[in-house]
Amino acid sequence: MSAPPFTLIYQPEAEKVLLDLYSKKQYATKFKKVRKTLRLLEQAGPRHPGLRSHAYQSVPAPDGGTLWESYVENHTPSAWRIWWFYGPDEEQITIVTIGPHP
What we know:
Layout: E1 7-10, H1 12-23, H2 28-43, E2 54-55, E3 68-71, E4 80-86, E5 92-100
C-alpha cells in the first residue's frame, strides 16, 4: 500500500458499468455519485472516512489477494459500492466492478 494519489485502472466489467451509467439519462445522479467516489479514491485514497473502505470477506480479488469495498452510497436500499484491489503496481488501484451491495 502506498499513499495517495493513486492511478485507477478499470477492469472491463467496471468500464461497462460506467459506460452504462453515463449513457442513460435516468442514471445521471448515480453516475455523479460514482464519479465522486472514484475521485476520492484516487485523490484522497481509500482511507478517506467517507469511503468507509474495508476488506470484502466473501470473495478474493482476481489476483488471489484482498478485495476491498468502498461506499458510493449509505443508508439506501441496495446502496452502491465499488470493489477494488491494490495494484498491479505501487500507487495503483484496480477497479473490479461497481454496483449495488449484494
